[in-house]
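FORM 12-B: Structure-to-Sequence Request
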């Protein structure tokens, strides 16, 4: 397993290189604003990372020290920090408090894109207010892409999201957010953060071994994993379980690298809970009380309820597989849409999510960022 990020090391959330803090590089500000400064040139490292030269013609990268450093070519000071490996810009907030990396995976049609859209929306609004967290996008492209590919279609146009194209045909770039929170400790309060690195992976990519290796670096860098599964795939008694198959493909390489049970906590969430005929008194239908903390009793009953469902459906092998391979896992049930969609639109009541934040609350608690 990757050496746990030490205080003096930062993991680039784009290429996952582990960088000593003093090695974080700078990009010259160029001629922006005032006259003097370097001309833009093709940045080969960044172009390599992006897979295209578009957006990679920029003022040069240089090494230095401190929060700001002087460009050796033009003498202009710059505080714009970049990864020394892939040259992607690193947000100042991320350099200051690099959070634990949370990765998200799931099979095709598991509900990943919808979940990403709704989770971020909730963290911005209701859940963010309740927990007093702040959510900051770590780069401009994250902001643009979230609006264009997720928020606008789902919330404004109320259309379902299209199938995510494979990484083999479309460039793959994560949405990177820093979710931070003031945590009171014995010696005053401090800011702690989770870095949500959300690759909206195409489910089909995790099925092919080749492309899955692309995601391996991502999974190896993760401090926590959220695994989404479509319960309808588990209930239909198919002899080949797609969710388990994908989970195994994700788990095998991690297990091989580190030997023994995997220590990274994994939150396994059944999506589309609204589509299940559940008894009224089900914990999954009960709304979580909004207390600004993790409700341990509620957590236990949801975990137990999902486990019971899995066993009822004859999908107990998923539970056993998790137990064999992970030291710590939590079972969750959630609904991003809150109701069955009609054709390509969300239900008539709009997007009414429930329990989408539960896996994150558990992880926040797990990382000492939230009381129980
Ligand atoms: N009932 C219900 N259906 C949902 C929910 N979330 C997603 N769905 C359905 O599942 C379909 C797939 O959701 P996506 O979010 O696109 O799934 P994905 O995992 O991104 O799929 P790929 O990109 O193809 O891998 C949607 O078009 C909806 O029909 C939910 O909360 N409730
Ligand atoms: Mg998708
Ligand atoms: Zn990088
Ligand atoms: Zn310069």
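FORM 12-B RESPONSE
SEQUENCE OUT:
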């Amino acid at each position: 397993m990757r050496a746990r990020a030490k205080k003096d090391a930062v993991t680039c959330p784009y290429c996952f290189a582990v960088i000593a803090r003093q090695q974080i590089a700078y990009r010259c500000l160029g001629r922006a604003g005032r006259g003097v400064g370097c001309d833009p040139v093709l940045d080969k490292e960044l172009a390599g990372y992006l897979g295209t030269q578009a957006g990679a013609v920029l003022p040069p990268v240089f090494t230095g020290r401190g929060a700001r450093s002087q460009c050796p070519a033009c003498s202009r000071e710059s505080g714009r920090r970049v990864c020394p490996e892939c040259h992607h810009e690193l947000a100042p907030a991320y350099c200051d408090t690099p959070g634990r990396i949370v990765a998200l995976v799931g099979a095709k049609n598991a509900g990943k894109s919808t979940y990403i859209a709704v989770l971020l929306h909730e963290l911005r609004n209701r859940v963010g207010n309740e927990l007093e967290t702040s959510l900051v996008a770590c780069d401009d492209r994250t902001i643009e892409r979230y609006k264009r590919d997720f928020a606008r279609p789902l919330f404004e146009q109320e259309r379902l999201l299209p199938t995510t194209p494979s990484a083999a045909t479309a460039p793959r770039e994560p949405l990177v957010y820093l979710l931070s929170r003031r945590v009171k400790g014995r010696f005053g309060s401090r800011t702690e953060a989770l870095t949500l690195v959300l690759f909206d992976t195409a489910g089909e990519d995790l099925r092919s071994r080749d492309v899955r290796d692309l995601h391996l670096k991502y999974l190896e860098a993760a401090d926590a994993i959220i695994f989404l599964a479509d319960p309808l795939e588990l209930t239909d008694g198919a002899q080949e379980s797609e969710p388990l198959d994908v989970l195994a493909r994700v788990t095998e390489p991690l297990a091989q690298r580190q030997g023994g049970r995997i220590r990274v906590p994994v939150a396994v969430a059944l999506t589309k809970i609204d589509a299940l005929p559940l008894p009224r008194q089900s914990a999954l239908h009960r709304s979580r009380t909004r207390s600004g903390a993790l409700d341990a009793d509620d957590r236990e009953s949801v975990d137990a309820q999902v486990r019971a469902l899995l066993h009822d459906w004859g999908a107990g092998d998923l539970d056993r597989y998790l137990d064999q391979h992970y030291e710590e896992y939590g079972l969750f049930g959630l609904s991003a849409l809150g109701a069955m969609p009609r054709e390509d639109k969300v239900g008539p009541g709009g997007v009414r999510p429930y329990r989408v934040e539960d896996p994150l609350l558990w992880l926040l608690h797990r990382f000492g960022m939230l009381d129980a």
